[in-house]
Amino acid sequence: MIPHLVRIVGSFDAMDLNLFGLANLIEAQRRAKLNPDLPTWQVSSYQNAWTMLRQFAVKELDQETEPWKLRVLFSTISLASQDFRMGALLTHWESSDVEELAENYLGWSKIYVE
């Protein structure tokens, strides 16, 4: 499915963040132990699609400043770079999760300025 999404969306002039979000969610769930491995005949096209997704995401970073959009793009880059834990965390975290983590582990409000 990922190679088809990349092929379709790659032909558009503008990227849609929904492509990245959907791909991230699919990849995070594909890694769940209860799901089967990719068939060997799909591995190459799947890896090529993730390479393209990574390139698209890096390009999109120049245009984004909203935290949730950056998280989606960073998740894509992490998953495409095979940092699956970080990619899955970024896929599932919401702004409140990031704020809580920063406060609990970094003492954000006491040490840092926004």
Report on this model:
- By secondary structure, this protein is mainly alpha-helical.
- The chain is globular.
- The termini are far apart.
- The mean pLDDT is 91.
In terms of structural class, how would the helical and strand content be classed? mainly alpha
**Relative strand content:** under 5%
Instruction: Please outline the major beta sheet.
Output: none
Give the termini distance in whole angstroms.
40 Å
Q: Give the total of beta strands.
A: 0
Mean pLDDT: 91
What's the helical proportion of residues? over 70%
The parts where pLDDT drops under 50 for at least 5 residues are: none
Helix and strand element order? HHHHHHH
Tally of separate helices = 7
The outline comes out as globular
Core attributes:
globular; mainly alpha; 114 residues; 0% strand
Q: Would you spell out the secondary-structure blueprint of this structure?
A:
Elements: H1 2-10, H2 17-30, H3 43-61, H4 67-80, H5 84-92, H6 95-106, H7 108-111
Helix pairs in contact: 1-3, 2-4, 2-5, 3-4, 4-5
